[in-house]
Protein 1
Amino acid sequence: MIISYAVRGQGILSGKIYDREKAKPMEFVQVYNKTIDYQLSSDREGNYKVYVKMGDTILFSALGYETQKIIIDKSLNFLNKNIYMQTRTLSLPEVMVSGKKSYKADSAEVREDYARVFNYKDKSTGNLIGTAIFHPLSFIEYLYSGKKRQGLRSFQSRIVDYEHEKFIDNYYNPVLIKKIVKIDSDAEMEAFMKFSRPEYEFIKSANQYDIYTYISTSYKKFKETGSKADSTSLK
């Protein structure tokens, strides 16, 4: 999407941000001018206003939504644009890593290799195991990082644990954290993430505001007490 304007120098891009499906204003959408590394958030009514100049790239992002991009170009008389955020479809990304197979292809092979385990029917409960979607990258390493598996039930339990960990990683990562708090080094980021790592149940039920507040509160506690504090007290 390209937006144009004829005003020389700097202008102001403004408008409202909506959930496309619900047609409701969205608060706390991150509006990021990638060109000058400046960001802000939409207000309660979905309003946003950001300084721009010709050639700037503006990104609109929110948890659970596809990122929208605008490139500022010349020859438009106004800089007003409403943004409609589309809910992201959860799927395994097609990503090639160092010449290896994509996550999707690798996932298909892992599921085929362990189909008997994934589809095992627990006679005591009648439940089918293996309905969770997970990223199998380093799955075998994760699976055998502790003791060797102790029976089928232990094997299934590790699969579920792995899925939960990857789910947390998807919604709680350095990219998101840097949008909320200022962290200057990789060492500090690693220490903070270890200190503040949330529980699966919290991430599963939290909305965007809950997660932003959690990050901000956790970082304040982290700076006050250091990593010696018990992160469970933050939840």
Protein 2
Amino acid sequence: MTAVDLGADLGIEAAAELKARLSAHLASECGVVLAAENVERVHTASLQLLSAFVRDRRKAGLRTDFEACAPPLREAARLLGLDVHLGLDTVASSETTSIPEQSK
């Protein structure tokens, strides 16, 4: 598994850098763990990037997990209705969750 630290700031100002970081792992055949324990600030643009990343990896049959999701990210995803899609509806701040496989 490859770990990608999401950092503390997922504001719109950080979206381009987040896109570059995620793009480097989009086709990685090994699993990707998104380390989200330090997230303090979230904007919709970053949630859109995370959602597209998870969707595209899922379509390719590649594993993506969230690790230790911080409350601001979990709450922002919930408010936008993305918590289930991202697999954050059940992950606590101290655990890792696998994003559900796509139904075929």
